[in-house]
Amino acid sequence: MIVIDVACTGGHRFEGWFASSDAFEDQRARALVACPTCGDTDVERALSVPRIAGKRSNDAPSPKQMLATIAAMQAASLKDSTWVGKEFAGKARDMADGAIPQATIHGEATPAEAKALREDGVAVMPLLCPVVKPSEVN
Prior knowledge:
The chain is of the alpha+beta class. It has five helices and five strands.
């Protein structure tokens, strides 16, 4: 995993974790990297200070351990949330309109759906990395 500093055309800066530089470029080209502040998918690598890694010590976490940590953090933050899959945009809009009761949900939305929700004042927050299930780490 690498950390890349990213900036949108609105001037917002944020970090993203990617498997490689090629993975970032692929996701960026497919408009899968969105600014967490404004939802803009027109993003570029931002100028940043290079990160120079020192010698790897024996107690440094392995990539598998890092994924396990991410999975545990995601599970903890989503424990009171319900997975709604591809119905996310519709359910979020229905909650905002009062058509269904408010609840904490997570799911999938296209960049266009997420942008439309934000433009309509529906409070949504993108996850910048895919949800890692603990079962996928082993």
